[in-house]
Specification:
This protein is α/β, with parallel strands linked by helices. About 35% of the residues lie in helices and about 15% in strands. The chain contains 11 helices and 9 strands. It has helices spanning about 65-70, 95-110, 120-130, 160-175, 175-185, 190-195, 205-215, 220-235, 240-245, 290-295, 295-305; strands spanning about 5, 20-30, 30-40, 45-50, 70-75, 110-115, 135-140, 250-255, 280-285. A 9-stranded mixed beta sheet has the order 1-2-3-5-4-6-7-8-9, with helices on both faces. The longest helix has 17 residues, at about 160-175. It starts with a strand and ends in an 8-residue tail after the last helix.
């Protein structure tokens, strides 16, 4: 039996900044999940899914324009990130997809269009495959997965697979994450990391720094990062982007920053071999977080595509 949904929606609604929306807490598998909503619940639903190291507040420049265009906007902090719990579990895109699927069923209560950034894009695609009746369409910006640049691996003998697993666990366990995460969050190293995602450094401000730094300073942050690093490294091939795209049946929009230094735009052009009906738009001059770096250039193509998704879902 599902745990009851608990919210704090009596608080004032913010439409701008990292604190946008009405905030709530939803319990899933015994874990506290932070989420937020903006707009009238009678309108078509959009679920925004943040990227690695970020949280739902990262959609600070996207939520209000979506509401103005006639959508009800939900966003969730994936387990391990933001204000959600940070357990020492094996966290990967399959885990987060099950979280998002349950959120759509138990909180949103109707099918939604998913919009993801970076890791959130992989989670959005995985959710579309795992719970297709709850996902109407998906927009990603961008879709990172190292396996997209690798040849299909040959099946390894069991001893090699076990050795690979043992090495991944050993490496992630040996890293002093309890020291590294606070160091990065409190020093100039944070700006250096953000600069890799933002070619236009004018987009890096104190709100963004706080959004990234606060969760990393929680005492449980290292547990969650260690668990997700191991789980993502040990995923089976069926949980990687290419086979997931081949199973996906919903419409897919791909928005990709042409100056993305973390996931080069060349990866975008490989996606069509796995999902020929996708729609690709390259955003010149933008980086890994185009929705936050230049919302005035990211929002129009997203809103134009979303307008075509407003047809009632056949559910």
């Amino acid at each position: 039996m599902a745990e009851p949904v608990t919210t704090s929606l009596a608080q004032p609604v913010a439409t701008q900044g990292c604190g946008w929306g009405r905030h709530g807490t939803w319990r899933w598998r015994g874990l506290a999940c932070h989420w937020r909503v903006l707009g009238e619940e009678s309108r078509p639903a959009v679920l925004l899914i943040h990227g690695f190291g970020a949280a739902s507040g990262h959609w600070r420049f996207t939520a209000a324009p979506l509401v103005a265009a006639g959508w009800c906007v939900y966003a969730i902090d994936l387990i391990g990130f933001g204000a959600s719990d940070q357990p020492g579990l094996r966290l990967d895109n399959r885990f987060w997809a099950r979280q998002c699927g349950a959120f759509l069923e138990q909180v949103v209560g109707r099918p939604a269009v998913l919009v993801g950034n970076s890791l959130g894009s992989l989670v959005a695609v995985t959710t579309a495959v795992f719970t297709p009746s709850w996902v109407r369409a998906v927009a990603v910006a961008p879709l990172p997965d190292p396996t997209l640049l690798m040849p299909i691996p040959r099946r390894r003998p069991p001893w090699r697979r076990r050795l690979r697993q043992a090495l991944a666990v050993l490496l992630c366990t040996a890293l002093p994450l309890e020291l590294l995460l606070p160091l990065i969050a409190r020093t100039v190293l944070l700006d250096l990391a953000l600069a890799a995602a933002y070619p236009d450094r004018r987009a890096i401000n104190d709100d963004l720094r706080r959004l990234i730094a606060r969760p990393a300073q929680r005492p449980t942050a290292a547990w969650a990062l260690r668990g997700m690093s191991i789980a993502m490294a040990l995923r089976p091939r069926g949980a990687t982007a290419a086979p997931l795209l081949e199973r996906m049946v919903q419409p897919l929009l791909v928005l990709w920053g042409q100056k993305d230094q973390l996931v080069p735009v060349a990866v975008a052009h490989r996606l069509v071999s796995h999902k020929p009906d996708l729609e690709l738009q390259v955003l010149n001059g933008l980086g890994h977080c185009p929705h936050d770096e230049a919302p005035e250039r990211f929002n129009p193509p997203l809103l134009g595509w979303l307008e075509r998704q407003k047809q009632p879902a056949n559910t």
